[in-house]
Amino acid sequence: MNWTDLDNWIVITGILSALSCALLGNFMVLRRLSMMGDAISHAVLPGLAAAFLISGSRDSITMFFGAAVVGILTAVFTDLIHRLGKVEESASMGVVFTTLFAVGLIMIVKGADAVDLDPGCVLYGAIELVPLDTKTVFNIPVPRAVIVLTTVFVLNALFVIFFYKELKISSFDPELATTVGANALWMHFILMTLVAVTTVASFESVGSILVIAMLIVPPATAWLITDRLRTMILISLLIAELSAVLGHVGALKLPNFIGYEDTSTAGMIAVASGALFFITLFFGPKHGIVIKSVERFWTLLRISREDILGLLYRLGELKNVNDLQVNSDLFRKVTGYGKGMYFSAIISLKLDKKICVDNGNFKLTDRGKRMAKSLIRSHRLWEAYLHKYLNLPIDHLHFSAERFEHVTDSKMQKQLLLKTELPTQDPHGKDIPE
Q: What integer best gives the mean pLDDT of the chain?
């Protein structure tokens, strides 16, 4: 892989586009307006066509303003239909962007002979050609797209920095925002305006179809990692930057492995961001599917272990326990656990030396008896508390207390003991262990 200055400019352009989109995308995700970016990116097509037909020129500034105006109108029309027409928000988006997109296609088809406008460039972008169109800045040739996207990123960053509090409040509670003086409606329209501007500015880099990936995927990935907004914004920017770098590297290297000569860098940026999302979805430290599954398993294992210890302690209180076969069949019948969870709990308890096997019967060791006593003490104190303060019937106490016993520590035991006036027996007449 021969890396040149052209690759540097392509990556810088991709990073700036991804950062500009991801910065605003955090608030789009929080406001449940993820598809608004997609609506705007499709709806600006008639703005591009109209700008060319009116001016007869492909001048970037003219095309930019034409698309930006229609992008802003998309947000305005969507909100008006939602508010005045009482139409569900996603439905109003669908009505507006499909209508405007169809109008744009008709305009291009009708003026095909006169309009020198490539729909593919609008839809898919041409980031590989960005280094060819340059402007001189401090005697250095800089791609025009880099200058535009740098301006847009700085504008978006200043908006988020200076209006962070207003954006935060209006994103989580629009009514509260208006009450404290931060007009939620104005925040909404300013945000949508900047989304429209950012979308149009990203056309040359990633196109109108792929810009939605940069708007939504990095913030959605960050949301799986953290619940703090500031951290979410920083992580989304890091993911956006990483996606741009990995996307271009993948565009250079991946085709060789699958038998193609080349592929689109813009497309690979979207693929890279999607790959990072799915990696986070499965292995994320906070909401990852694998992490949650492991946590759920250990929680069920802990509860299963405690249920078995509690059952052994209760069986030990019976006078005719010697006539009872305290083995796997009994436990599985009483607890209702599946084979996998049951045997995992039994093996774990044996390894911890909390139970032992004597003549085919399970018995508590000294360590196991101490833990079982604490569990039964929590259970019966909860029964006393629920009976005293909630006046639950005696036959309803066991199942309620069984839920609380697994989350009760020694401090809570002391509080329960004081609240129930130091009882020595539970409402069923059974002794509460010391």
A: 80
The conformation of residue 413, written as its DSSP 8-state character, comes to H
255 found inside a domain: no
Residues 6+ apart with CB under 8 A from 312: 326, 355, 362, 363, 364, 368, 372
Range of the domain at 328: 288-364
The residues near 163 (Cβ < 8 Å, ≥ 6 apart) are 187, 190
* Alpha carbons 407 and 375: distance in angstroms, whole number: 10
Mean pLDDT to the nearest integer, 286-302: 87
Q: Which two tokens stand for residue 278?
A: 């799915």
Residues 360 and 379 in one domain: no
Strand partners, 143: 134
Residue type, 154: V
CA separation (Å) from 223 to 33, 35, 54, 67, 145?
15, 17, 43, 30, 29
Of the candidates 313, 344, 364, which is a domain's last residue? 364
Same domain? 304 vs 402 = no
State how many domains the chain has: 3
Amino acid at 389: Y
Same domain, 184 and 313: no
Rounded mean pLDDT, 205-228: 83
Using alpha carbons, select from 76, 70, 22, 2 the residue that is nearest to residue 242. Answer: 22
pLDDT tens digits for range 76-93:
787 788 777 777 777 787
Residue 242: inside a domain: no
